[in-house]
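Write out the 3D structure for:
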Amino acid sequence: MTASMETDKSNYLVANRNVKAIQAAGGIPIILPYFLRAEEIKEITNRIDGLYATGGYDIDPILFGEEPHPGLGNIIPERDQSELAVIKEMLEKEKPILGVCRGSQILNVAAGGDMYQDINTQINTELLQHSQKAPFDYRSHFVDVAEGSLLHRLTGKHKLRVNSFHHQANRSVHEGFRISGTASDGIIEAIESEIHPFVLGLQWHPEALIHEEDDPSLQIYQGFIKACQQ
């Protein structure tokens, strides 16, 4: 299992809570650098059991056919290119993918979907506070879970209470994917593949919400690790 990383141009960084979430679920995390050469991407996707795409900076809108909106934040082109290529290869190989926050968005783009560059200025209706002011591990709003979805099967819940730290969000999904979770304001909170065994993207940060053994967040990671072992 791998965790994609953020960088400040001189260092690769990954939040420790991401590493601990994989370990808590019984997996062995391997932190990857950016891969830009096709032969490297094929080799690493042959070696890993699954891909865990983490949160981070914004995504380059060129990747889904748009130019930068004024609300777009920092981007790291190398990360975008690497994750996009690795995800496409993992989808081709039908290997498990779990994406959180930015990871869910880059997964959706790789699968042919698109996204909002900035929900607060691109959506005209009143929204929830998706960049919460509460502590990172506080569950600030609810997500309605689609009946029979992978997310529903993993958690056993029709409604989840989650944290929220994003200003970008998925807008539409491509054929072969479905929306499996939404906030009360209509923002897409979960997407998943209908044709792959385990491909799931979550807009929130479940890695910060693992508090008990029966916590739905832990069940998500356990399901991911189980899929990686098959």
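The CA atoms of residues 58 and 137 lie 21 Å apart.
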